[in-house]
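Q: How would the C-alpha cells look for this protein?
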Amino acid sequence: MAAVPTDSGSRPAAGARFFCTAGRGLEPFLMREVRARLAATQVEYISGKVFFTTCSDLNMLKKLKSAERLFLLIKKQFPLNVSSVSKGKILSEIQRLINDDPESWLNAISTWKNLLELDAKKDKLFQRAANPPKRKVEENNIINAKKLKTKQLQVLQESGECSLEKQTEEETQEQGDFLTEREKSQEAFQNDVVKAADAKNQKNLTFRVSCRCSGAIAKTFTAQEVGRITGIALMKQFGWKADLRNPNLEIFIHLNDIYSVVGIPVFRIPLASRAYIKTAGLRSTIAWALASLAEIQAGAFVLDPMCGLGTILLEAAKEWPDVYYVGADVSDSQLLGAYDNLKAAGLKNKIELLQVSVIDLPLPSESVDVIISDIPFGKKFKLGEDIKSILQEMERVLHVGGAIVLLLSEEHHRRLKDGEQSSIPLSSEGSHTGEPSIKKCLKPGGKTGTSETVSSSFEASSQECLDKTPPFGSLVPVECHKVSLGRTDAFICKYRKLHSLGL
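A: Here is the predicted structure in C-alpha cell form.
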C-alpha cells in the first residue's frame, strides 16, 4: 500500500475534507459513490477508510449509501513510532496530535459548526413553509366562521359541518405530528450549534473521545488510556469540558501501524443504520453495493429470487424508484418480515412478493432484466440445492445482455470456479486494483486522482484472464469483489448473459 501523506487539517478553498469508514472490500464502491453523488475531489483510500474533499451540505452527505460513518477530518498522518521509544515519549507523541497544530482543530470545529448552522437554517425555512403564518391562519378561521354561520342560518345538514370540523382537526393534527418529528430529528444538531458558540472561544464546549487502537500501539496502551491522554490535552489546550454521557462534540481517534487519523463524527447515527428498514437482514451497505453493481435502468424488471427480508430490494427501490421489482422466497417467515419492511419503508406498492422456489420460478424465459440476490449460507438459512442448478434457473429467466449480481460464500464461489485458477479477478484488500473494476457502479462524478490509477498491464492481464475463461452456460463472469461480512468473508460476483440458451 502506498505511503500515507500527511494531512494536518488544512482546508482546501473548494470545500471541506472528510473521511468515511467502510466495510473491508467496499472502499472502491464508496470512492465511486462520493465522486458521483458529492462531486468529490482528492479521493483516496486506506484500508477501511475513504478520504475526500467536497462542498456538499449535510443533506447530500446523508445520502451516502456505501459508508458506515462520516467524519470531518482533523488530522491524517503517519503512525506513531512505538517500536524503539519509551512509554513517556509515546505519551508526548499522542499529546502532539493536539498541541503541535491547534489551528487545525479550531478550523475543523468552525467547519463543523457552519455545517450544523446551515442545516438548522434550512430546517427553519422548511418549517416556515410547512406552517403558515399565524395571522394568515386567523384570517382563514374568520372567513370559515362566517361561511359556517351563513350555512347555519340556511339550516344546512349538520353532518356536513361535523365532517368539515373533523377533517380540519385531522389535517391540523397530521401537520403537527409531521413538524414534531422533523423538529426532533434536528434538535440534536441545533443544540450543538447553540452550545458550540464561537470557534475561537469554546470554554463551554463539552466533548468526549472515542478511540480505536490496533497493532504495536495497542500492545503498549489501551484505547481507554489513549482517550484519557487525549482528553487531558484537549482540556489544557482549549479549555473544553469532558462529558462522557451527553457531549455536544465527539472526537474520534484511530491509531494503528499504518496511519493516525483524528476526526469529528458528522452524524450521531451511523449512515449504515437506515431509518426506513424495520427489521435488519443483510447489511445495508452490502445490499446497496450489490444493487449499484447491477446497472439498474428506469423501466427495468429486477428480480431477487431469494429475497429474505427484502433488504436488497429496499436499497434498490430507494435509489432507483422507476423500476418493477419482484422478490421471491420459499419461507413464510421471511416473506412476512419482507412485507413489514416494505410497509415501513412505504414501498409495498413498488415491490411485489411471491412465495416460490428459486429452482422453479413462474416466469417466462428471458423475461427479467436484472437479478440480484444474496445466496443463503448462514446457520439459520442455508442453501440446500446445488448452486449451479440455481444459477441455471436464473440464467433461463434472464434476457440476453442482462446481468446477475450475487453475494456468494467462499464455498459457493469456489464451486463456480472453472478449473484451479480463479475465473474472476478479485479486488484485494489494501490494493488499488479494485477501483477500476467498478467503473459501471455509478455515473462518473469527478476526475480520478493518481492514487487510483491502475496500470494498463494489469487491465490487459485481467481481460486476458476473462477471455480464457469458458462461460458457465451463456453466463460470463464480469467482475468480483471480496468483502467482509464481519466474522466471515464473501464475494460480490457479477455475470452477464451473452446469448440465448440452446444457441
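Residues 188 and 268 are 9 Å apart (CA to CA).

DSSP finds 14 helices and 16 strands in the chain.

Upvote if useful.
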